[in-house]
Amino acid sequence: MPKIIDIVINHDFKFTRLPQYNIKSHINTKILEIVTSLGIKVYWSYAELASVTGSLDPFVSMCAGFYDSVNDFIAMNENASQNHNLVLLHEIGHWSGHSSRLARSAIILKDGFNKPISHNTSPNYFALYHNEEGIAQYCMYYLALALNIDINEAHVFLKTYNNSYGLIDDAYCAREGLKAAEYILKLAGIQELVAA
């Protein structure tokens, strides 16, 4: 029988996880090659992240995955129902915006990208955040196309996600998402995409 994992969050909020699920064993090998070749730090479960950090913010426990721009790592939620390949490609899209890489505004703000919108003090952050999410979604889509991974689902995921962020500048996000995908593919030594 699988072990149930209990995690204490911020020393006073406790929740019980479902039986542990090994996300890494279900990630497409092409994506794992990118993660490895680029040296991207990924915590494959929130349980792993909590065991390293000692706590887990309740806000992030609701996400399918997230990118921490301050500490430069990706964390995946082993209990999320979304397609883990596409979620990881989305988070790699955010990773590309780090100040040491493409230095996108929403990622390099003083407050850091990994804070909820309501906790961020930068006046333009709301618009920057929505566009950053759009960029990561387009990056996910272009990477899925380039790697031939879940293309139909990636298209649906792109449109559904972007419709939920109605304020994004779609043309800008598509351009920047393509730029991010090509940057990632080039760093990983994979043939670049050609814009259609």
Task: Describe the fold and architecture.
A 3-stranded mixed beta sheet has the order 3-5-4. A two-stranded antiparallel sheet has the order 1-2. It has 196 residues and is of the alpha+beta class. 45% of the residues lie in helices and 12% in strands. Helix 3 packs across helix 5 (125-147), helix 5 (125-147) packs antiparallel against helix 6 (151-164) and helix 5 (125-147) crosses helix 7. It contains 7 helices and 5 strands. The protein has helices at 29-38, 46-53, 84-95, 105-108, 125-147, 151-164, 170-187, and strands at residues 4-9, 13-19, 42-43, 65-68, 73-76. It has one domain. Mean pLDDT is 78; it is low at 1-19. A hairpin with a 3-residue loop joins strand 1 (4-9) and strand 2 (13-19). It is globular, with a radius of gyration of 16 Å.
Protein traits:
196 residues, alpha+beta, 12% strand, globular, disordered N terminus
Summed over residues and divided by their number, the pLDDT gives a mean of 78
Report the span from N to C terminus.
Answer: 50 Å
Q: Helical proportion?
A: 40-55%
Strand order in space, largest sheet: 3-5-4
SSE order: EEHEHEEHHHHH
The total beta strand count reads 5
